[in-house]
Fold these 4 entries.
Entry 1:
Amino acid sequence: MPDHSTRLRDQAITFGDGTVGRHVDVPSASPTNFHQVISAAQDMPRLVIDAKLFLPPDAQRPSPLVIVVPGSLGVAPSHVAHAETLFDNGIATCILDSFGARQVTSTVADQTQFSFAASAFDVLAAYRVLANLPDIDADRIGAQGHSRGGSAVLTAATRCFADAVVGAGTGLAAVLAAYPWSGQQFLSAGIGDTEVRVLMGDADEWCSPAQVQAHCHAMRLAGGVASMRLFGGAQHSFDRDTPIEDIGEARVALGAPTTYVADDGAMLHPLAATPDPALVDRDVMVYAMKAGFGRRGARIGSRPGDAAAFREDMVAFWRRVLR
């Protein structure tokens, strides 16, 4: 299982059949905001992040693949378990680590250690690398993100962002966003041919289900295929298969207004009339705290049966869209 004291590239992760994850270098970047990605990509600081690739030995070649994108606590046993479950269903999987190369271990107390734009860029950077591997079917690559990773895959599916990174008409076949934060949304919500599925608990204390519902509705109004399943009484990270616990150092702002993003990547402050290319995540998050939306502490974890229900939906989705 993952060891946060060691970078993912230096860990050996072995699935039950004996398959050992193959290290993959992913050339990526650390943009300050969405505007830098879309309108000033030449200014982005570059870095190489870590990934582990698992190819089912008996699967068809080239194989469909799902990129597993962890959340604010980094790569957890549940992410490895999800990757192995999909692997056991004949789907290649790749666990992505955005934290190690940036010397970050957790963002629960401070989500501004690197931008949400960087998290989304990492997903598409991994897509570019994996789509060029001979054993992978470039037309059947999906991404499954959890919490902050869920936000990343939703942005990676948004054409305004994806077109700038991987080119028009290219990108992920589908994304599954598990309990994502939809506090940042592009005004142009089109997702093209990428199908979106969201799984979330209605008792989530980290991210607003209503905000995510609105996000999915915007995608549908823009012509996309987006569905959302709410699990009654489920908490954040209800797929972890660990008891519900309070994360005291967490900083959350459940009721904060949405920050919208223009086509050129400039963010629109909730109190402003025009987008600002210089605006960064910290600006709007400090606003949310000062406006009284923030608080400390939030729960994560599973009730009996939560994790199994998540896995069932997850497997059914990926088997259908990557068949």
Entry 2:
Amino acid sequence: MIEEPEIEVGIVRSSKICFVLHTTYRNASGQRFMAGEHVASGTTLGVCIDGIRVSDCELCPQQPNSTFSVKDVEIGVGFHWDQKEDQSFAGKLRFVVDGDGIWAVNKIKVEDYLRSVIASEMSATSDIELLKAHAVASRSWLMAQVWNKGKFVGAGRRNLDGEKKYICWRDREDHKLFDVCADDHCQRYQGVGRISQTAVDKAIAQTRGEILTYEGNVCDARFSKCCGGMTEVFSTCWTDDEVSYLRSFADSTVWPSKYHDLQNEQEAREWIYDTPEAFCNTQDAKVIGQILNSYDQKTQDFYRWRIEYGAEELGSIIKEKCGIDIGEVVDLVPLQRGPSGRIKLLRIVGSKDELTVGKELEIRRLLSRTHLYSSAFSISWKDKKTIVLSGAGWGHGVGMCQIGAAVMANRGFNYRSILYHYFRRAMIEKKWV
């Protein structure tokens, strides 16, 4: 057993950050920062608070249960629910200069961090077994990032053959100044404002220190909103490595006998146009209301979805996103699909030029002003100038399907059964008391 770790969470980056201390804070040099509103900024000489340079910029509360607030924190960065809100946090507050900007960083114990994550990722009124399953998955993912720092490839890009053809992925290794960020790029961490003092606390307490392991190593326990009926493998979304406990399988107790290979274009198309039985295939308003926060509930068509673009409109979006003017989109050609039907490599043919792109998230990014729900989509034409994308799922589909897990909990599965369904061959171990 080890002592419960303390971690660092990047909350927001800006040229200046407005924050409110609700009690008195001090730094290691003994400087006092009184309750009230303050402004932090970065200079070439370091951090300034209220226009005065501070040599030690880690602020520690002087009273138990103290909190601070940070204004205009952006959540859902780059996604369709992107918005700003003021958020409150427990623990310590640190500022770090980053180029021409400054980061607000929260230092906090793991279990306190998780109390916010679970309530931020879903409604705190969820079934207790779902909350417990998510607590273990979130704790595992977090500690994989902290303990395995430097072992992940992180963000990367490979240009192929010198052509307008590249594979791009983004992972949490983008962060060098802290352990994890507070948004969907890592795990949603939105402070103490969404914490329920009942179910979430109970779920955290009953799973305290528990993490998923595989062959003695902590699992990088990924999760997304809705797998669309079939989970995806790691290599479709990030590096080409295969992860033994992140497999592709039906989000059900049985394999859909009609489908054998969703990497096959015809089968993938049939799968996407179908609505096969799966845990995450639900319209149960009670379950959906428990697992999706208010801004997530704007998205109801997460299992199967449809979007239309004009050919010229989509060409403009692609130019806006990557700077390449391909003209009107003439065709979208899937070159490789993962085992869930998610497109791993896509050729985009335009009237002026063409572009081949991957992986999963980059495809979603280029084909939307925000992000497509997933890259598991089929292409058709409504007329010669209107492209229709029909899709399955919401997110990368790797690891735990949050909506599927919620349905499992609602049907009486306990948290261990849920975790062992989504993380095959993994084990649950207690690392601290």
Entry 3:
Amino acid sequence: MRKLYIVQRHDEFDAIINNCPSKKSNSFVIYYKDNNYKYDRYGISVGKKLGNAVERNSYKRKIRAIIDNYKKNYVNQKDYIIILRRSAKDKSFQELESDFNNLMHKIRKDFCNEEK
């Protein structure tokens, strides 16, 4: 994932988490808001309770791989903050992928309903 597609600034990250709607599953919490760009941006957060730095970075790489594989399916000019929950620790890559795609589908469905 290129740096262009990453929410990097701390104040943007906090503003999205504190002021925007979210969707939750067993593995993820995803906050989202509209942006003024022609592309989606993502921020990933993995808490310390999920393991040491090596394990947390491994989870981030998995989430980035999932995003790269499916980002063409849900382009809708939004910023997403993806927070991994502790229950994701015992799940395989395929289960994480399925959970993430189901959650993104729900967000996209809500976004389409808002436009009508």
Entry 4:
Amino acid sequence: MVNPVMAMFRRPAQRRRRRSALEIIASAGVREESFRTVGGIPQWVTVRGHDKANQVLLIIHGGPGSPYTPFNSWISEWEQSFTVVQWDQRGAGPTFIRSGAPDLSLQQIVADGLELAESLMRTYGRPLVVMGSSVGSLIASMMARAAPHLFSALVLSNILGPDSVARSWVQTLDTARITRNQRAIRKLEQIGSDPRAWNAEQAQMQSKIAVQLSRRAPNMVYDLMLPALMYDPTLTMSDIQKIDQGMKTSLTALYHDYSPFPLAMREGVFEMPVLAIHGEQDLVSPIEAARDYIATLTAPHTAFIGVPEAGHLVEFAAPHQFSKHLLDFTCANT
């Protein structure tokens, strides 16, 4: 586990290492990192891969407002098999730093995502694989239903199913009782068991406790998000502070849009194959709820894969395994 003090100490050397990992030399490859006008505002998009002939993978990050571009150096292996597109949504990452968060809503983010996907399809001449993570699993699902012609496959990770949050509260409370964490027990009992009654701050508190009590998997904050941000060679400390502000802004603005996601995700008919990859130790969105949700879907083909010893943000906790599952599925089904 990386604490903030240790991250500051390691920051110079790790940034040099990750800058090297971000180099792409192949002549057939692509490396584009720029602001694109999407939805009428500049939004940060990176396109990276060793062969432009590979399938295009569009990653829809979670949070809300939690950018995944700082993980680019963690998933360089993916770029051997895919042209990987990372997009910092309205209200997130460098997009927030440059453009703020005007007209921020779930529907607007979906519209932005579709606009970007249409542009990528025109450029590369073929449908994309769209991957949605955590809250992004909802956004990607809405995009896939709205414009199925744009996508050859839908990949979902850290899936928020219809009762994921309610099950998370129960399992987190059980874990707190087993470990005799009286502070966590008290806070969870104060929040109550019905997520429909929570506000954004209460939902975030429950999620933080779930992360804190996840003992058999990498800690989502201190093992994954913190080092990704701190070691990103493109980000200053001021940038990181502003990114944190964007996360808070997005949570406040979007919580009431995405908190009733069970209604949106019950429309489970997709025209493309669906792959779900989930950490077996995920306490934030328990694997049982994710598996039950995927079982309700209607699609040409569905597959559900659990990754042992991984929790929330399974794609970054186990990037090699995730990449292999992703490649096997897309080769067989697209």
